[in-house]
């Protein structure tokens, strides 16, 4: 009996080996295209990954089955469909009996597509780290290894499929308007007679006058808009109540930018971009009350929101983005320099210092201009650099009440502005008050004024 049992066991084992060999899977290299689905003909697309199931269908546009109001990014849908227009593989595994060894009995992701005539179900299994490829089933009985892993596209959640609002790159801005905490307009004007600085092209409209702005500061502000990260959406279909809760029913600041760009046919296209910014109203109210009671903190928490035009999407923006966008005052965009003229346009400097008057004259033109004092040519570099270093620490309209430290009349090679008068008055131990053409402008560092006086003395006393 013992011998008989051993014989039966040996026969069973031999039968198992033979059966295994009879059903051994066939694996071979392949460059076959196993799916060719016309993406334009696809009418439905869905996938299950992890705990999330997403489904979309096409009418005139692609719609999310769970909410027709969701703004679907059609390019992202198309990007996923294009994967199966010519879906190629690198290995074919035939005669498969155990799909579990490839992770296809419980697929990590299931993708379904359909046209008017046909439906496909694509299963994604394990990832072969040895081959750096994914096991895939397309329902034909085979298992495939693919290099272009579909999971790279279908691990997406709903937030990855939203058609986000975009901020443009402003090729040429023709106008900017601020409403809310700031209320003024900026116009674009080349070769303007409203400035003595050739680079000035932006002008603030204030009290009937066009006041020059610093081109680099305006461009930097526009770049803050272009570089704004609009991805963290709070809602994609804001109600009136939600807008009010975010403070966007009456935005703190609305920025309207008129700009032009060239299309592919080189036609000039005019566009207008509108951005609305607000801080959480309750938080803003608490901050104002704390400020009134002088209880503000250095690390103030800011919850802020932005909305593009009449879009229904509301985005959360960072505290730094909020502060940068809200910093849109005239003072934030005007020239910091007391004298913004190009020094190569200076034809003469008349200087008053400690009751004495001095004149520095020039010959030549542009960058080839040379300067002299009392008929003797001089090196103007130190005086030029100290004059150009006079920049606003802050702006003010306060009238001077103390001693004038130094005065300069700068003569320019400019028909509209033949001269600029600069007077620097003592203010306190840290700052001096700069008055330009009789109008108080800014507080500048007293140390820089001292450097200017020393540069003048170096010329007139030697």
From TrEMBL:
Superkingdom: Bacteria
Span of domain DUF4340: 62-251
Biased composition (Basic and acidic residues): 279-288
Residue ranges, compositional bias (Acidic residues): 289-300
Chain intervals for the UniProt region annotation (Disordered): 278-300
Protein name: DUF4340 domain-containing protein
UniProt organism field: Intestinimonas butyriciproducens
Lineage per the UniProt record: Bacteria, Bacillati, Bacillota, Clostridia, Eubacteriales
């Amino acid at each position: 009996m013992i011998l008989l049992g051993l014989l039966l066991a040996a026969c069973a084992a031999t039968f198992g080996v033979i059966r295994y060999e009879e059903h051994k899977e066939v694996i071979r290299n392949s460059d076959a295209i196993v799916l060719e689905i016309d993406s334009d003909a696809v009418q439905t697309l869905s996938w299950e990954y992890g705990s999330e199931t997403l489904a979309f269908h096409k009418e005139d546009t692609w719609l999310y089955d769970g909410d027709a109001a969701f703004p679907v990014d059609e390019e992202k849908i198309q990007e996923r469909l294009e994967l199966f227009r010519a879906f190629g593989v690198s290995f074919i595994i035939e005669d498969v009996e155990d799909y579990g060894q490839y992770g296809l009995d419980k697929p990590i992701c299931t993708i379904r597509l359909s046209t008017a005539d046909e439906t496909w179900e694509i299963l994604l299994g394990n990832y072969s780290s040895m081959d750096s490829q994914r096991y895939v089933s397309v329902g034909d009985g085979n298992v495939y290894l693919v290099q272009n892993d579909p999971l790279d596209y279908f691990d997406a959640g709903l937030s990855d499929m939203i058609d986000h609002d975009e901020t443009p790159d402003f090729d040429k801005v023709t106008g900017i308007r601020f409403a809310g905490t700031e209320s003024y307009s900026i116009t674009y004007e080349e070769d303007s007679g409203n400035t003595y600085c050739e680079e000035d092209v932006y002008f603030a409209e204030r009290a009937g006058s066009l006041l020059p702005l610093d081109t680099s500061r305006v461009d930097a502000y526009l770049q803050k808009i272009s570089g704004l990260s609009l991805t963290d959406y709070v809602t994609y279909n804001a109600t009136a109540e939600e807008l009010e809760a975010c403070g966007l029913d009456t935005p703190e600041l609305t920025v309207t930018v008129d700009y032009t760009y060239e299309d592919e046919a080189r036609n000039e296209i005019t566009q207008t971009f509108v951005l609305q910014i607000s801080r959480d109203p309750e938080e803003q109210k608490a901050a104002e009350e704390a400020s009134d009671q002088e209880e503000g903190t250095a690390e103030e928490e800011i919850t802020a929101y932005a909305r593009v035009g009449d879009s229904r999407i509301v985005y959360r923006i960072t505290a730094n983005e909020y502060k940068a966008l809200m910093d849109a005052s005239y003072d934030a965009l005007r020239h910091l320099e007391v004298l913004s003229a190009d020094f190569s346009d200076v034809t003469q400097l008349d200087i008053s210092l400690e009751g004495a008057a001095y004149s520095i004259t020039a010959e030549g033109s542009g960058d080839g201009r040379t300067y002299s004092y009392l008929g003797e040519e001089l090196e103007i570099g130190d005086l030029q650099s100290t004059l150009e270093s006079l920049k606003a620490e802050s702006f003010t309209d306060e009238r001077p009440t103390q001693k004038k430290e130094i005065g300069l009349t700068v003569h320019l090679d400019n028909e509209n502005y033949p001269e600029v008068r600069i007077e620097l008055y003592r203010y306190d131990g840290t700052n001096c008050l700069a008055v330009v053409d009789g109008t108080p402008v800014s507080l500048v560092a007293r140390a820089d004024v001292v450097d200017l006086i020393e540069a003048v003395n170096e010329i007139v006393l030697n």
